[in-house]
Amino acid sequence: MANLFDLSRLLNRREHHPGRRKLLRSISTGMMGAGLADMLALEAIAKNTGHRPGQAKRVLVIYEEGGISQMDTWDPKPQAPYDHRTPYQPIDTNVPGIQFSSLMPMTARQADKLSVIRSMTTARVAGHKEGCQEFFKGYRFDSSFDFPDIGSVVTDQIGTDCPQLPGYIFCPGINMPNHVTSTGFLPASRAPWKLGTRNLGENLSDPSWEVKSLQLNPKLSRERFQQRRELLTQLDRSAVAKTETAETLQAYYENAVDLLTSPRVQASLNLSTESDQTRDRYGRDHRGCCYLLGRKLIETGVRFVSVTVIQPPEHVNRPGYGQPKGVFLNWDHHEGIYQKGPCGGPQGMSNQERFGLPHPVMMPSLDRSFSALIEDMHTRGLLADTLVCFITEMGRTPRVNKWGGRDHWGRAMSVALAGAGVPGGQVIGATNKEGGDVTDRLYTPYDYAETIYRKLGIDTAARIRRPDGLPVEFTDGGHPIREVF
User: Fold this and answer.
1) N or C: which end of the chain has fewer CB within 10 A?
2) How far is residue 321's CA from residue 387's CA, in Å, rounded to a whole number?
3) Is 123:435 a contact under the CB 8 Å cutoff?
4) Largest Cα–Cα distance of the chain, in whole Å?
């Protein structure tokens, strides 16, 4: 187990030929960059062969940034005080007795495949970074040490079913997740591979969008690329001493090269391979493309995929998009949350001008894409062994503020789970009539994390060890959400 957390020591063992590793690295990194090549090279060395398969083989996390209003999605509150209730009434789902917001008509028709947790809470400090960090790590945001991302821990423990790709991928990887992600005490090779390169403004619906890290080094011609591939083949046939570690490294450096040419990998990152019907069902905007790409990566065998969405692309050309005091299209609607057009204006608490789009304008895109994802994965049989998690970092206040918006709220929020044996057609927990406080079965991000580990068959009772040998719990005192097993 020590080698799980000290790969540098393993790689420097005398039995591993340093010249061979250096040559392999120079071949692969010269084509695609050191970070991705090393990630692939090191990924399988620490794989835990004692892992017992669980109900889930893979995990797909849909993270909608900003803090979505619980009463405008999964937990409608028609009996809230008139001045503070949402103007959008509840609608029936395809499960008798369960209602969602009328802003989610298409998702309502997939309710039989979902477990909705209305009694989730988040960080004591209801901030974007704090809430995101707790959901991505399963530890309190103010923990005394830096715990790795859940995805990092998962790939460290059980590897991936697609060795040509990293086991933990951000699709595309933007804004808040970029600020909170870390490998903690695990090796850097456990970091998520980010398909995007910019913190804001990434637009997967742009026909020219591509995964930049998979493009050939501009200084490397096709002829030299082929020469380096041939060099790998010659090296494999050489008389250099081979060990199990060296063989593993060679295989994964070869995978780093194959990543550039593998039809399977290229197809998993190419939305044009999907039918027009599928593209239209998900939506051809940024959100629809992100959700669809997440499904394709899961289908390819990637262990842990986090889809991170911050804006629909049809509005990114508005002045100041992604700039200070400019358009910032997430769900953080402190002003004009129910306006039908652009919301925003001077925020009294910060004197900043931030303009965006309110819930009713953004919700149709989310409703379409999420319902398409669940429907599509069910049809393809992917829900049988994929745990799908829909999260946001916090809820919104039960009371509307003087700017016509709802502020940050951590005491009550909703998330949804599907697949991998999660019973569909159920609501877990409850909140009061305003949606502001949990009244039944309170759960936390630590319980959410524990549920993911248990679904994957990871024995959390065994503890995970830091490089100094200190055993650490997988979550910050979390317990599995029993209703989804």
Assistant:
1) N
2) 34
3) no
4) 80
In the beta sheet, which residues pair with residue 115?
A: 417, 426
Amino acid letter, 301: G
Give CA–CA dist 146/447, Å, rounded.
18
Q: Which of 405, 420, 480 lies closest to 456, judged by CA? A: 420
Length of the chain: 485
Judge contact between 286 and 78, C-beta under 8 A: no
Which tokens go with 357? 């789009």
Amino acid 345 reads G
Q: Are the C-beta atoms of 93 and 101 separated by less than 8 Å?
A: no
CATH superfamily of 51-211+268-484: Alkaline Phosphatase, subunit A (3.40.720.10)
pLDDT in tens, the chain (485 residues): 333 233 333 333 333 444 444 544 444 454 455 456 556 655 555 455 456 789 999 999 999 999 999 999 999 999 999 999 999 999 999 999 999 999 999 999 999 999 999 999 998 888 999 999 999 999 999 999 999 999 999 999 999 988 888 999 999 877 788 889 999 999 988 999 999 876 666 788 888 888 877 765 555 555 665 665 566 555 555 545 555 555 555 555 566 666 666 777 888 899 999 999 999 999 998 899 999 999 999 999 999 999 988 764 455 455 554 444 445 568 988 888 998 655 555 444 454 445 567 888 889 999 999 999 999 999 999 999 999 999 999 999 999 998 899 999 999 999 999 999 999 999 999 999 999 999 999 999 999 999 999 999 999 999 999 888 899 999 999 999 999 99
The rounded distance, in Å, linking the Cα atoms of 156 and 143 is: 21
CA distance linking residue 464 with residue 470, whole number of Å: 8
User: Which residues are registered as beta bridge partners of 346?
Assistant: 353
